[in-house]
Amino acid sequence: MPMIPLDHLDPAELFAMVSWTIAPRPIAWVTSVSPAGDHNLAPFSFFTIASTDPLILMIAIEPREDGSVKDTLGNVLSTRQFVVHIAELDRLPEVARSGDPSPPDFDELADLALPTSAATVVRPPVIDGCAAVFECELLTTHRPGLETLVFGRVVAARVAEHLITGCGRVDVAALRPLGRIGNVFTASTLLERPDRPVGTAC
């Protein structure tokens, strides 16, 4: 199969090409709090597990178009805490809207009238009704290029009760986490599992 080189592309073109080919990407729906107590909510699709023991999550946060630091990164650097939510298909409108540009003191949680509850360890609030919640404390950051990589150690985690089967596994047939392919949202679903039929969780 013929291949087309990407080395000649400028950063914007390369970003577009990579975002459509390294996919689907999971979405971290992140709440954070400023030192003054202002709430912030934003989605990030450059997101993954960095370690399982201890459990560490990584989010890559790019700067604003003018080069300034985004609110989430500023809050995390100041308070060293954030909460990652895994949202499902039914939260698509809220996830999409929370990614719109907004001033630093704009409260996306209030604007979207999202129900929240207090986290168990950290200050940022938890959005009720998500598939999973990971309360994180900042471990370190690294900026190898345009984006700042944020590594957060998970200090509390939980999964929605309706997604857990009787044997304590995630019901893969019931889970519909949001993701991204390019600049388009997608719902991740299990297509094939070699060791057992799709939908068998135990």
UniProtKB/TrEMBL annotation:
Tagged with keyword DNA-binding: no
Name recorded for this polypeptide: Flavin reductase (DIM6/NTAB) family NADH-FMN oxidoreductase RutF
Similarity annotation: Belongs to the flavoredoxin family.
PANTHER family: FLAVIN REDUCTASE LIKE DOMAIN-CONTAINING PROTEIN, FLAVOPROTEIN OXYGENASE
InterPro entries per UniProt: Flavin_Rdtase-like_dom (IPR002563), Split_barrel_FMN-bd (IPR012349)
Keywords, in A-Z order: Flavoprotein, FMN
Residue ranges annotated for the Flavin reductase like domain, each copy included: 22-173
Keyword Flavoprotein: yes
Pfam family, one: Flavin_Reduct
Cofactor (UniProt): FMN
